[in-house]
Amino acid sequence: xxxxxxxxxxxxxxxxxxxxxxxxxxxxxxxxxxxxxxxxxxxxxxxxxxxxxxxxxxxxxxxxxxxxxxxxxxxxxxxxxxxxxxxxxxxxxxxxxxxxxxxxxxxxxxxxxxxxxxxxxxxxxxxxxxxxxxxxxxxxxxxxxxxxxxxxxxxxxxxxxxxxxxxxxxxxxxxxxxxxxxxxxxxxxxxxxxxxxxxxxxxxxxxxxxxxxxxxxxxxxxxxxxxxxxxxxxxxxxxxxxxxxxxxxxxxxxxxxxxxxxxxxxxxxxxxxxxxxxxxxxxxxxxxxxxxxxxxxxxxxxxxxxxxxxxxxxxxxxxxxxxxxxxxxxxxxxxxxxxxxxxxxxxxxxxxxxxxxxxxxxxxxxxxxxxxxxxxxxxxxxxxxxxxxxxxxxxxxxxxxxxxxxxxxxxxxxxxxxxxxxxxxxxxxxxxxxxxxxxxxxxxxxxxxxxxxxxxxxxxxxxxxxxxxxxxxxxxxxxxxxxxxxxxxxxxxxxxxxxxxxxxxxxxxxx
Amino acid sequence: xxxxxxxxxxxxxxxxxxxxxxxxxxxxxxxxxxxxxxxxxxxxxxxxxxxxxxxxxxxxxxxxxxxxxxxxxxxxxxxxxxxxxxxxxxxxxxxxxxxxxxxxxxxxxxxxxxxxxxxxxxxxxxxxxxxxxxxxxxxxxxxxxxxxxxxxxxxxxxxxxxxxxxxxxxxxxxxxxxxxxxxxxxxxxxxxxxxxxxxxxxxxxxxxxxxxxxxxxxxxxxxxxxxxxxxxxxxxxxxxxxxxxxxxxxxxxxxxxxxxxxxxxxxxxxxxxxxxxxxxxxxxxxxxxxxxxxxxxxxxxxxxxxxxxxxxxxxxxxxxxxxxxx
Lengths: 511, 326
Prior knowledge:
Largest sheet of chain B: 2 strands, antiparallel
Low-confidence stretches of chain A: 1-9
Strand content of chain A: 25-35%
Strand order of the largest sheet of chain A: 6-9-10-3-11-12
InterPro entries (chain B): ABC_transp_permease (IPR001851)
Order of helices and strands of chain B: HHHHHHHEEHHHHHHH
Strand content of chain B: under 5%
Number of domains of chain B: 1
CATH architecture of the largest domain in chain A: 3-Layer(aba) Sandwich
Number of helices of chain B: 14
Oligomer: heterodimer
Helix content of chain A: 25-40%
Number of strands of chain B: 2
Subcellular location (chain B): Cell membrane
Number of domains of chain A: 4
Helix content of chain B: over 70%
Pfam families (chain B): BPD_transp_2
Radius of gyration of chain A: 24 Å
CATH topology of the largest domain in chain A: Rossmann fold
CATH class of the largest domain in chain A: Alpha Beta
Distance between the termini of chain B: 31 Å
Strand order of the largest sheet of chain B: 1-2
Keywords (chain B): Cell membrane, Membrane, Transmembrane, Transmembrane helix
Mean pLDDT of chain B: 88
Structural class of chain B: mainly alpha
CATH superfamily of the largest domain in chain A: P-loop containing nucleotide triphosphate hydrolases
CATH topology of chain B: ABC transporter involved in vitamin B12 uptake, BtuC
Main location (chain B): membrane
Largest sheet of chain A: 6 strands, mixed
């Protein structure tokens, strides 16, 4: 009995010869793809490989230019997302689709609120939200809370509850786990396994290899809009998969670490740094040429620490010493000023890192306009040179630097954010989860870049939700718990066991 | 393959997203002139509208609106709006004529600057939405001016210099037009060539991202409101010169046309994008439309309906174009 992956008899949703073009760009090129009932199917590929377009076509957000979609063998087409929803295809998108000023319960039932006498039945709506939240292990989320007030990882869980409310037969997750903590990922995977047993088809996009190993039955690799190969999970090694995705050989996942430095000159020293109960008397020293990771569960103050250092939070206390001089940082302007030389790669590149409709050149230079000005005016030659230099240095793939930055793929957008800050010649670089939702190739470029910046004498503070990154990249990892640094790991101590143990404050048990 | 050079040539001349409204407004100006000329040829047998005297006179009248619109554009690019324009104009004019003498014009500008500063501080530091805050400031200015004048047109007259700037001519070219040109060059340089200008666009697009890039966002907002207020004060001073004195409600006719000119010129009403050339053309369009409608002896009611419809239709057309790309 030979079962080829695209055998129509089993296929629940089947795409044949699907092509989608955006202007001159072919996002999907004659793709055949099928996903089966009762299986978890992972789609892998770099950003720009066509994964998101595939999902948008399946969920009715865009229509294919050519090709056919069959649902249970019947040709069908979705003119808009609600039509796909009605057929049981529900998608959890990478960009959060929640309305920040409505309550959790309102958001979960936004498409089809329970009605009574034609009006929304608020009690039923609340009960429904409570049930769904309990199902995904989020009893701690108050259904009446405003979504705006929830941390990102909770919002993502609400997003999942909202999708489950639609009773899907095909559930599509587009990077839905990238903002979640490890514990939440486990919960979500538990739900997915149960849904799979109920015969639901699940399609997932993720850049985290270990998550795919944990959940997927089948994997499909896409590259440049083409479907490269579909295989049973486990049939290909991680190295083979990565090579399929990027089409070139990858030697090492992370650049080699130098031997632990002998007491370097301290670049940044924090003493008793505190903020409104979210940061509690933090002492941290970062040496020149050192990459220090911030570990721990999501929401333990890591983000606040970075934002505080960058002058965004009001009312911090304690002392910050940069290169031996005590400094006051009351705004990002102070943070990037000469003598402090901080840079922050923010968490959300779309709202905090970039002005999306503006040109690549404008985005690259916005942080260094004062350096590029001569007298009243911006020096046009210096500006052009700086833009070219930034594009070269980060190897950003651009058509023209006057194109809107929104036309770039996620990985290249993140490179623009980083290049923008490199132009200011920072001495201390703060990164808030910079590799979230970007492709493997770009991730590796970022790792190498951080190492080369450190070798050139800069200090890096790196917060990541991905333990692999902390282990692979950092010279030292400061694990945070409830606003405090509970443990600093060095050298060989940096391993997953120690990070998780410290993150859960289990030091004694783990020793 | 052979079509490659042609393609690149076309790409070079391809209209950008921001250029389309400008081209469309320019085309509409030609339509207005053509319709008006056909009318005058038919009724009077002359093409009055195409004579240099008529066009220069329209530009002179347009200068007052143009100067206001230049300031308004800065504020709209930020994603804000300045509704205090009417009484900033009137206050600038009234204080300039009250003080008189050589200090008249500096006082007119200074009053505008001060109103702009209050607006800017309220919006940037108190974080009150500009639509409400500037509306409130407009009412306050109105009250202050009524208290100052007793509710009547002030008896004081505009100085000679004010009158010269408003109605004088050098080599047949109205001085007011030159003032407008100077303001335009300054605003254009500001927007295209300075860090402040680029910061204005950045804030209009995504204030959080601009702030996190170390842009002094509050300072830029205050500066833009100050400039807007000062230009309204300048316009008021010139208007007083034009009609030789200040009077109640003299700025009332400038608020909506100024916003309309900016938006017709392609500046996004929510901020972030737009070119100054568009605002210039928007002002000319509005001035010519008004003038041609009055030449055609359209009653006031009909003029208002056509004037409003044109604004709505032009925006509808732009809106459709923008939807495709975003």
